[in-house]
Amino acid sequence: MNQIEKNISDIQDRIEAACLKSNRNKSDVKILLATKTVTPENIKFALNFGIKRIGENKVQELKSKFEALRDIPHESHFIGHLQSNKIKEVIQYAQCIQSVDRWSLAQKLQNRLEYEDKSIDVFIQVNTSNESSKFGIEPEKAVELAMQMKSLNRIRIKGLMTIGLFSPNPELTRPCFKQLKQIQRELLDLDIPVHDLSMGMSNDLETAIEEGSTMIRVGTAVFGKRALPDSYYWNESK
Ligand SMILES: *Cc1c(COP(=O)(O)O)cnc(C)c1O
Question: How far apart are the first and last CA of the chain?
Answer without folding.
Answer: 37
